[in-house]
Specification:
CATH superfamily of one domain: Vaccinia Virus protein VP39
Radius of gyration: 17 Å
Number of helices: 9
Distance between the termini: 44 Å
Number of strands: 11
Helix content: 25-40%
CATH architecture of one domain: 3-Layer(aba) Sandwich
CATH class of one domain: Alpha Beta
CATH topology of one domain: Rossmann fold
Order of helices and strands: HHEEEHHHEHEHEEHEEHEE
Shape: globular
Strand content: 25-35%
């Protein structure tokens, strides 16, 4: 019963508010800057837009629509730890004091604020988001006592805005499947990683029909590895210790 309720709540949070009542935004025809586009980058395609997608395809999948800032309450729901066991994810990350971490698609800072004390003293959490409303929430969060290691970052659709070789780990929790330009963002993240740095995808398991999340908001491990293989990344391991999500870990070559 709890799973059915959560699924209904996700449907509500993704599909209510001005962003859903208005016509879907037109897909941009602007070409990303040369610096953002990899040589021989795979071609994006198009399909008839599904209810939960944007009509743009990449590596055989339709890119999901973004869960907008109007869904912030779902990210902070009381039952999230019980359902997703984020505390186990933090153990999987094995964070240490002094590390520089990018929480990409940080949203309300649910994970950023939990990681901040784990990298202190001397560490930094770059809380990255493309939505200005989310960055405003992160800025308020960073002003709270004990969160001086948290640095909000405004990203663009193609670039998370991180300096080259500036981070030890990049984390994307239920974010990658929504990226409008996944190839360019991964390229930028790999550039931002220090040698041997880790890139961690956390995605709802598409292989499991019992995971109560809409299909376009899930990814299979095989699909994640297929897309990561287009970049200088080496698969390290996949942890399935979380109830609903994969934790797929890569290292920069």
């Amino acid at each position: 019963m709890r799973q059915i309720t959560t699924f209904a709540l996700l449907t509500l949070m993704v599909c209510t508010g001005p962003a859903c009542s208005a016509p879907p935004p037109a897909q941009s025809t602007a070409t990303p800057t040369t610096a953002a586009v990899a040589e021989n980058a795979p071609t994006y395609g198009s399909v008839r837009r599904s209810a939960d997608g944007i009509g743009k395809t990449y590596q055989g999948r339709e890119i999901s629509a973004v869960m907008g800032w109007q869904g912030a309450a779902w990210l902070e729901r009381e039952e999230r730890e019980r359902e997703e066991r984020g505390s186990l994810l933090l153990q999987e990350l094995a964070l240490e004091p002094g590390m520089a971490i990018a929480d990409v698609g940080a949203g309300t800072g649910y994970y950023a604020r939990r990681m901040a004390p784990l990298v202190a003293p001397g560490g930094t959490i770059y809380a990255v988001d493309v939505q200005p409303q989310m960055v405003a929430m992160l800025t308020q969060l960073a002003a709270q006592p004990g969160l001086d290691t948290l640095v909000p970052v405004q990203a663009s659709a193609t670039d998370p805005g991180l300096a080259p070789e500036s981070i030890d780990l990049a984390l994307m929790v239920d974010v990658y499947h929504e990226l409008e330009y996944p190839h360019e963002v991964l390229q930028s993240l790999v550039r931002a990683l220090r040698p041997g740095g880790r890139l961690v995808f956390v995605e709802y398991r598409a292989e499991d029909d019992d995971v109560p999340i809409k299909p376009l908001h899930k990814m299979s491990e095989a699909q994640i590895r297929k897309e990561a293989a287009l970049h200088p990344l080496v698969w390290e391991r996949t942890a399935d210790t979380l109830p609903w999500q994969h934790v797929v870990v890569f290292r920069k070559r």
